[in-house]
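Table S2 (text version). Query chain:
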Amino acid sequence: MDRQLQVFLAVAKHLSFTKAAEAVFMTQPAVTFRIRQLEEQFGTRLFDRTAGRITLTPAGVAAVDYAERILALWAELDSRLKEMSNKVTGSLCIGASTTIAEFLLPRILGDFKARFPGLTLRLVVGNTEQVQEGILQRTLDLGFIEGESHSPSLVSDICCEDQLVMVCAPTHALAKEKVATAQLLAKHPYIQREIGSGTREVTDHYFSNAGVPPDSLNTIMEAGSPEALKGLAVTGLGFAIMSRAAVAKEAKLGQLVPIPLSPRLVRYLSVVYAKERFHSKIVNTFAQFAKERMALQTSDVWSSLLALDGGARAAQIHQDPD
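Corresponding structure-token output:
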């Protein structure tokens, strides 16, 4: 029942089965089936589907309020009873933007699972926008995103600092540069992340502040993940802007060259919660555990980069270039 209510709330918010499916990480047919089941159970239509549009019926409007309260109370009851039994069991559904999920969270999840073997952990990967939507729709317990949340219904707590650098193939014309300015980069083919990702938002803002409109850049391709972005940059097609945590291995192997931006581009990685929602002890414990480990891991990445080229290039990345 709780999953059906989560799906119902997603459709009610988006008024679209397709968008709701993306928000709850399900297929569109599965969402349609869940809504049909719910309508059959209550014996009434919750949505009107006319002329290609979806609208809430009066019954659907009433159901939204009840569904939100039922899910909140169910989550609180489940957490309270588990805490009273002193058993750390159950499941924890964590959302994370792709950079965090691929390069920072795997080791953290493994260590946390070893500490609490009775707990089932589930990691859902999406861009920053999708992770926040999952928390709002109650399909995720908490999430990790790039930057801070702008949603008034969410609270974000900064975990650590993350620096972005320009990366390119060793054979690329930019590889010989000591620093890269927005004006210099505007002259070269650009491979960037998709709209909706935290990296895309922060890089667009960076170029705009430097007087280079993002739509004036020579964007030749967009990629939906850091791994895809690196794979394209390695070919020499163009440059990319990425978290230094994401390219440490490729830099060490000589496949990509990290070049510091001038001025530096620094963002924050944050853990995000629903504002008005009971949080279990295990959710709070994992959030604190992850925050401490993420700070340590980003520090380790910095130490790794210091070892490259005698530390000279990494020192440039760490400091504001002249």
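Notes on Table S2: Confidence is low (pLDDT under 50) at residues 314-318. The first helix runs from residue 2 to 14.
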